[in-house]
DNA sequence: TCAGTGGTGTTATGAGATAACATCACATGC
DNA sequence: GCATGTGATGTTATCTCATAACACCACTGA
């Protein structure tokens, strides 16, 4: 993360109420779909939502226990895999971190704008698909999933 | 890599002559730029070129010595960092692998089509930048570098 | 010839992720 | 009720990926 400029307070984490609401929504939706929103999955999603920015898996592991006890790695990685599969979280490959999905739409190919200075990320709806789809068609590839991540500076860090 | 279909021979590696020529070109170009194309850097580039597809860092480490002796990790990671900085190689974050740059143009933002079946990759010139740039402008971000990787099936694996 | 810069060699360790296997919870059919 | 199958979890160990730190070397320019 920060290498050149100081850390700023960007968007910041959502309020506790926001987190609760999002958790409730997710729980209700997945339960309705016949999925099991277990304690571990809810806890990991809660941590991601509360952070409001990408979080490293081992940070989730460290923060997992409400009593300060860390989780075992597979506990968190399994929850992340589930959340990702269900579109509630995304892995950001270029920084090996995970973030709650901020888009309401299910089954989307997300793209991210990532500030290398303060760590803020913005999830933007696949405005990229067009160009990539065109290239894929030209090459004869059938795309299953995409990783689109742009690194740079957020408005706040640019202003600083 | 392969999970569903068998491994096919896709494009395959280039001929030894192709590799030699590309190595010579890279050497000449960087030397002209005042960079030092050292043995380790040339060797890693040679391995990447010869593979003709993404290679894991520890595979490069294992293949490094012509006598079968592996390299020490930093040797290869340093060479990769240099090659990437100079536009001769790319890291593919979604699979933690490295590939020789197949584009002639310097200083480009590459995008990749990656076959999850046979491992073939196609480097396509940033046809993606448009959409992403637009989104970044809208969000006020200044983009420095991008990671664009599409996973799916290549034509050969689709046909199989 | 001496300092500065950039590259290499080496050791060790940090960070990210998963394999394997035992156990548990829960829904469904009998 | 209770057997049975499926999916989730707990636990241990390990594997893969990547870099920190420090000593040494090669080249360049004052």
Could you explain how this protein is built, in words?
Chains A, B: Belongs to the Fur family. Two copies of one chain form a homodimer. Chain A is of the alpha+beta class and 160 residues long. Chain A has a single domain, classed as Arc Repressor Mutant, subunit A, CATH 1.10.10.10. Chain A has helices at 16-32, 39-51, 57-63, 73-85, 129-139, 155-159; strands at 89-92, 97-100, 110-115, 121-125, 142-153. In chain A, the strands form two sheets. A three-stranded mixed sheet of chain A has the order 4-3-5. In chain A, helix 1 packs antiparallel against helix 2 (39-51). The radius of gyration of chain A is 17 Å and the shape is globular. Chain A binds chain B through residues 93-94, 111, 113, 115-116, 122, 124, 127-132, 134-136, 139-155, 158, and chain B through 93-94, 111, 113, 115-116, 122, 124, 126-132, 134-136, 139-155, 158. The structure holds a DNA duplex (30 and 30 nucleotides).
Which CATH-level-2 architecture of chain A?
Answer: Orthogonal Bundle
Largest sheet: spatial strand order of chain A: 4-3-5
Question: Which chains share the greatest interface?
Answer: A-B, 35 and 36 residues
In which range does the helix fraction of chain A lie? 40-55%
Principal-axis shape of chain A: globular
- Strand % of chain A is 15-25%
The count of β-strands of chain A is 5
Stated plainly, the CATH topology of chain A is called: Arc Repressor Mutant, subunit A
What is the CATH superfamily of chain A? Winged helix-like DNA-binding domain superfamily/Winged helix DNA-binding domain
Count of alpha and pi helical runs of chain A: 6
Estimated structural class of chain A: alpha+beta
What distance lies between the first and last C-alpha atoms of chain A, to the nearest angstrom? 16 Å
Count of structural domains of chain A? 1
CATH class of chain A: Mainly Alpha
**Radius of gyration of CA atoms of chain A, rounded to a whole number:** 17 Å
Binding site for Fe cation (chains A, B): 130
Family (chains A, B): Belongs to the Fur family.
Cofactor (chains A, B): Mn(2+); Fe(2+); Zn(2+)
Protein name (chains A, B): Fur family zinc uptake transcriptional regulator
């Amino acid at each position: 993360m920060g290498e050149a400029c100081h850390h700023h307070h960007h968007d910041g984490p959502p309020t506790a109420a926001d987190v609760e609401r999002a958790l409730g929504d997710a729980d209700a939706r997945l339960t309705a779909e016949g999925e099991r929103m277990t304690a571990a999955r809810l806890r990991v999603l809660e941590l991601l939502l509360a952070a409001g920015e990408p979080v490293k898996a081992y940070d989730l592991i460290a923060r997992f226990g409400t009593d300060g006890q860390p989780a075992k790695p597979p506990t968190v990685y399994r929850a992340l895999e589930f959340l990702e599969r269900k579109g509630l979280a995304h892995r950001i490959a270029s920084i090996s971190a995970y973030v709650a999905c901020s888009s309401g739409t299910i089954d989307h190919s997300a793209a991210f704008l990532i500030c290398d200075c303060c760590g803020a990320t913005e999830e933007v709806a696949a405005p990229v698909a067009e160009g990539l789809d065109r290239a894929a068609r030209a090459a004869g590839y059938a795309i299953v999933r995409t990783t689109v991540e742009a690194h740079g500076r957020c408005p706040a860090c640019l202003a600083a």
